[in-house]
Amino acid sequence: MSYIILYALLGVGLFVLGLYALIIHAHLLRKILAINVMGTGVFLVLVALAARHQDAPPDPVPHAMVITGIVVAVSATALALILMLKVYAATGKTELHDGKPD
Amino acid sequence: MNLAQSLPLLVVASSLVPGAIIFFLDEKQTVARIFLNMAGALIKLALAGVMLWGIVHGYHYEIRLPLLPGIDLFLRAGPLAMLFVTLSATLWLLTTIYAIGYLEDSPHRSRFFGFFSLCVTATAGLALAGNLLTFLLFYELLTLATYPLIVHRGTEEARLAGRNYLIYTIGGGALLLLATVWLYTLTGTLEFTARGFLSGLDAVHHPALIVIFVLFIAGLGVKAALLPFHGWLPQAMVAPAPVSALLHAVAVVKAGAFGIVRVVYDVYGIEFAADLGVTLPLAILASATIIYGSVRALFQDDLKRRLAFSTVSQVSYIALGVAVVGPIATIGGLVHLVHQGIQKVTLFFCAGNLAETLGIHKVSEMNGVARRMPWTMTAFTISALGMIGLPPLTGFISKWYLGMGALDAGQNWVIFILAGSSLLNAAYFLPIVYAAWFKPSPSTWPHERSFGALETAWPLLLPPIITAALTLGLGLLASSPISPLEWVRFIASREFAP
Amino acid sequence: MSGPVMTLLLLAVPGLPLLLAIPALNRRLLWPLHIALLPTIVLLFLPGDFSIELPWVLLGSAGMGIDTVSRWWLLMSITIWIASATFLHKSIESGTDNRLTALFLLTLAGQLGAIVATNLVSFFAFTTLMGYAFVGLLFVDGDDRARRAGRLYLVLLIVADIILFEALLIAGGLTNDLGFAAVSRVIAQSPSSVFYLSMVIAGFALKAGFWPLHLWLPLAYGSARPAVAFLLWVVPVATGLLGMVRWIPLGVIAEPTLGTLLLGSGAAGIFYALLFGLMRAQWKQAPLYVAILATGVFAMGLGIGMVDPAIWNQYGGDSAPVFVAAVGLGFAIIIAGLAWLERKKGSPSDSSVADGTVPWFEYWPQAIIRWGRRTGFDTLPGLRESWLARWGGLLQTGRWQKVFDAGEYFIQRWAFAVTLSLLLGMLSVVLLLLDVISVL
Amino acid sequence: MTGDLLGIPWAVLLILLPLIGGLACFLLPSLSKSLGLLCALAILVAVGGLGWQLAENGAQRYAIGGWGAPLGIDLYADGLSLLMLVMAALVGLGVSVYSSAYFNGDKARHFWPLWLFLWAALNALFLSADIFNLYVTLELLGLAAVALVALAGGADALNAAMRYLLVSLLGSLFYLLGVALIYHGFGSVDIAILAQRIEPSPAAWSAVGLMSAGLLLKTALFPMHFWLPAAHASAPAPVSALLSALVVKAPFYILLRLWLEIFSPTGAAPGQLLGQLLGLLGAAAVLWGGIQALRQTRLKLLIAYSTVAQLGYLFLAFPLGTSIAWKGVFYLLLSHALAKAAMFMAAGNILYFCGHDRITDLDGVAQRLPLTLAAFSLAGVSIMGLPPSGGFVAKWLLLETALRSGQWWWAAILILGGLLAAAYIFQVIGHAFTQADAPAETGLVPARMEWTAVMFAFAAILLGFFATDAFELIGIGAPTSGVSGG
To answer: How close is the nearest chain C Cα to the Cα of D412, in Å?
Structure first.
């Protein structure tokens, strides 16, 4: 088992971890963090898989993708944080109320 | 596309365009609305006349617009189509006059007349439909256009009646759609053809064809108020009288009956349908409806409900005439399409007059009403006697051909159905006539309105008198060259030509 | 006489009364009563047989005409109608119901039309018109008893019309030409003649009030005014008899069973009339029993004619109309005389007041309808209603609501979990895969 | 002249126009209304130009800035993209007109830039030729949409927006993981290249699984629709219209592209199985969405659940899989977009007028807002799939395929779904027709808002008459060539 695979598996692990956290935690900040962890996991997979063989130079395309992805993730996080603050201001809670009809 | 080719389209447009404009008229623009209504109705009638003349002289009127891949929107003015178009155009004119008088000073007239015109558009369209898809299109349009008319009064009762109407008709429409698509997957064509287009199909498909036939009858039977599907009709009586008149005489109920005629003759072909063994069950169903509707009518005190159950019974004559396989019964069934329309429209006009002028809604309130409104009740009486099938009225002609057709086809049991139905018709119509003419009238009526010298407003009085005269005239002169009977004979000769 | 004039006259025989009935509908008019009879009178005195075909009317084979037989009937009818009209004139003047005129004219049109009809369909149409208008006349004119009589007659009339319609259908199935002569010819050779004959006899027996079916006649007679009483013979009875003569191929066909039946009915009628006419000894009722007697005699004659056609050919064909005419005239004279006597004596009419009891022929149908309403036709919809209500209840009870609410809530809360389970499965695949890839 | 016009890179313009428009609105808030409307018109023209180009020259491919794959960004336009672009342009124009009356003041200032950015993302998404760009545009689309939902303010809307954002991000990440696997396995993200290279392999299957899962979550296929009703119902009316008409269609479009061009050759058995599964979920969505819609007491929620049901129809084509069925789905996309936009606008009008959208209290709407009710009803006709609407054409094609292939149960679902739709739509109409006791008016609805709704509804109906022409246009570049003929 090569280290590439190790990285990739690590990425997948982060992804699953983030997913787990996203579901488990009610606090919005934690949810947002969880999403970020998931994103990081995916980026890790991308970067790791860029090296097709241990000897060959890594493929640059996934790296470009990761950079793009990070930009997107940053803006998404910013929006999420703002939204969280607004939710807090409007409801006084940092959680989503579940779909139970009022 | 020349002018002659587009005539069918013009017939449809002659009510669609005025209807569309009327929607946008202000409530107060009464004159403009009346003008549009009358102009549309007269133009339609004139166009129908031109096309009748043309068909007799060998012209063909058809027009196609592509709709779906492989299937067109197809309007064709065949003899059968023209029978229905002429009927609807004539009765639309009269009903419009009636409705103008009936709805004087009531709210939402623009909306009412808009949908009214749409309703007639749909009727004309499904009469002229040259294939099942076009038929389906107008069939559904009819469902939708009628709904606002039924709930027009805006009461809770009207809303529930409308809901019930939709439950039945939308369900029926769904079945019809299913049947149509299924048929299309088997044949690849949906075009109405004299004597059907299915007989060439492989015998493997025959069970499927039987199922499709059942779907068709169920889908169309909802509108035609065949036995288990008739429940919406008596409830729909909350609608204003002109709507009931239109509903029962030309639009909804007739659309169902007309559809059955189309399916049996021009999709399956009567002989093929008989080979499949589906006509006898249809005949039995129609007979059961005839008897059941009459029996139910017997026990209704509400006049319009009684008339509604009478429709349930009478419209099934058409299906019966179709299902008793044979040229003569066909004549009976088809001519009843016209005759029942004229008679029933008269009855509803009269019921509306009673309600509007005197506030009478129940049979038990009708004692001596004929002294107060002799013309209305004369029209009513003539139509009621026509319904019973007394000569020389139109109902007699229908029953005669149905009876002769049954004998001709060796289905003697139908005679007993006819006799029983006549007896029941008499049992629920004659007490009304008796009470109206011969019982002493009460000192006051529920809600009397005065109209000067006339017994009621002339737009309310004229239409029933004309239709009653037609009941008499078309029956008496049934064999004249311009009668519906002659036209129906022409159609039947086409369907059964050797 | 030239063709067009005769045609016009023939058409006017039923046509003029019909036209005159329209303005009389809601106004009290006197003048049409006699004027309506004019064309018939003129026609009566114009010599020669004449007939016309009306190809456009009804089933395409309607026709009218006049011959020796119909002249006799016309003569008799006209006499009675004139008498009746005269009497009616007086009562209308004295201010009774103004609808009398219209109904009188309609009845007149139907009766005269039936006499000049030359085929089954037009005869049927005219007698129907006549019958229903006459029922109206009974209703308008009389008291409770007359109305009751009218209702009974109406029921008989409906049944008779249905039966005759079936007979008509049988005839129509055999021949396209429904003229009397053609039908006689065809029926005589047809295997279904027994059906046809029994239906015709039953139908007209109902209309003419043959013996067991005469019940309404005394009722009507007892309370109707003289003008209407006149008509009792000429309208329902005589026209019914005429129908039998016209529709049955007498003298051609031998049908002993039916003939015997008719004979029996006629004899019973005679017996009944004699017995009751004598027993009641109420002189005012006498003309009616004469009429019943005459009907019985006529029925016997018909019966004999059917048992042995030869006898009919020898006597019946000529004597029947004369007989009917004679009876009719006698009937009219008696009634007129009675009315005159009554007026002279100034005695109040002794028409018995209704006693409030409902006769059996009304009681039973009403009871059946009541029963039917109670048991069947009110419970059936009621049942449906209750089912619908139960269905509505099902829809409204919390159960379904809760199911759907809970379902949607479940999905909302567990959405992530649902997603998770879907995706974790896929992830495990991924992990496996990465293994595979590395091996490759 | 015509040559010059044909030479213009309309596809690039389609992305640039809203982008620049959005920037301009952001910079010049006072002019945002007119700028937005102008931009909407310009986009319509550009779509027209692109359509003409396609009709003349067939499917188009642009390499932006001359850089080719793998590093450059390629745009690809065929009939399917054109369909989506036309849909976006039509709905976009209508929404712009509607919004110009609906939003005022501060909200208008926020709305226009966001909306134009969203439009840019949409157009870019529909024109993307590679699966990574699809990811980027999808993400941008999601962010803009979330911001627009939040525009309504209030606890409900913010909650819904937050949930929507989380779901959206989650879905995108799944998709991106799939993209990573695909790229690793086949060395390209270009759809056309992948279509040739891809072969049935475990890697391909797992990528299919991941990407589909992410996209299904964003398309709100039952049972992953939980976020949709709240988001669509609590957003401002024009935004609801946008979301239901366009935004949910974008992930579906990606799914369609992948399925038709990349996944369909990846082996019959799992494809069949997945297709059946999707069909099953779609059927469940149709029924569940219909029932839930029927049970709603508020109009906008009803419409939102109706969207859930209608999205279910889209998935019925997966098990059927013939080109006729796909045509039906394409048409359903378009007609649903128009009809649903009309419905949400009508609901917006009612809300604007009555101040509430409780269905049982809609008395008298038929009298006071006849145009709005007409819009709702006509749109309902298309939603129910009654002729001659666009919805009918779609339903007919799907029914035909279902019956032809003997899979009658899908036909039953279609019929049942239509009945349910009729039930919930007429529930509203029935209440709207009852007479009001006392008029409870709060404000007059601007004519522009009523008319836009009516125009959309009419367009949804008229769509039924242009099916044959439309299919010719959609057929450019043969987007369904990968599937078996029908």
So the answer is: 21
**Helix residue ranges, H only, D258-298:** 268-295
Q: Is A90 exposed, middle or buried (0-12, 13-18, 19+ CB in 10 A)?
A: middle
Architecture of the CATH domain A3-91: Orthogonal Bundle (1.10)
Cβ contact D155–A90 (<8 Å) = yes
DSSP state of C117: B
Helix (H) or strand (E) holding B71: strand B71-76
Mind giving me the DSSP string for B380-398? HHHHHHHHHT-TTSHHHHH
Enumerate the residues of chain D whose CB falls inside 8 A of the CB of residue C415. Answer: 223-224, 226-227
Q: Are D371 and D332 in contact (CB under 8 A)?
A: no
CB of D399 less than 8 A from some CB of B = yes
The sign of the dihedral angle between the CA atoms of C393, C394, C398, C404 is negative
Least confident of B228-237, B447-456, D387-396, D463-472: B447-456
Segment D16-44, tens digit of pLDDT: 999 999 999 999 988 889 999 999 999 99
Among candidate residues B309, B152, B105, the one with its CA nearest the CA of residue B227: B309
- Measure CA B381 to chain center: 20
Distance CA D70, CA D75 (A): 13
CA D86 → CA B459, D92, D335, distances in Å? 52, 9, 12
Q: CB D174 to CB C433 under 8 A?
A: no
D288 touches chain C (CB under 8 A): yes
Residue appearing with tokens 């026709």: C63
What CA–CA distance (Å, rounded) separates D19 from C155? 88
- Spell out which residues of chain D touch residue C432, defining contact as CB-CB under 8 Å: 202
C408 touches chain A (CB under 8 A): yes
Q: For D237-244, what is the mean pLDDT?
A: 94
* Selected residue of A96, A97, A98, A100 to mutate for chain D interface (largest D Cβ count, 10 A): A96
Side-chain-facing half-sphere of D333: CA atoms under 13 Å? 29
The residue in chain B having the minimum alpha-carbon distance to the alpha carbon of residue C140 is: B438
Task: Tell how many helices (H) and how many strands (E) occur in chain D.
Answer: 22, 2
Q: Hunting for tokens 């009746």 — which residue is that?
A: C84
Mean pLDDT over residues C313-325, rounded? 76
What ipTM describes this predicted complex? Answer: 0.86
Measured CA to CA, the distance from residue D470 to residue D79 in angstroms comes to 9
Distance between CA atoms of D430 and B165, rounded to whole angstroms?
Answer: 12
Report pLDDT for C356: 46
Using one digit for the tens of pLDDT, what is the confidence trace for D197-213?
Answer: 887 777 777 788 888 88
Partner residue opposite C409 with nearest CB, options A1, A23, A99: A99
Q: In the Cβ-directed half-sphere of C249, how many Cα atoms lie within 13 Å?
A: 21
User: Does B touch A (3+ CB pairs < 8 Å)?
Assistant: no
Does residue D268 have a pLDDT over 50? Answer: no
The residue ranges of every structural domain in chain D are 279-486
- Nearest CB to A83; choose among D162, D177, D181: D162
* CA distances to B83, B224, B265 from B261, in Å: 12, 11, 6
Determine, for residues D132 and A68 on separate chains, whether the beta-carbon distance falls below 8 Å.
yes
C176–chain D Cβ distance below 8 A for any pair: no
Q: Searching chain C, which residue's CA lies closest to the CA of residue B421?
A: C162
**B112 touches B246 (CB < 8 A):** no
Residue-wise pLDDT for B287-335, tens only, equals 999 998 998 888 888 899 899 999 999 999 999 999 988 888 989 999 9
Residue D312 pLDDT greater than 90, yes or no: yes
Q: How far is CA B24 from the centre of its chain?
A: 29
Do you know the residue count of chain D? 486
Give the global pTM.
0.89
The string of pLDDT tens digits covering residues B201-254 is: 888 889 999 999 999 999 999 999 888 888 888 888 888 888 888 888 888 899
Alpha-carbon gap, residue C112 to C41, rounded angstroms: 11
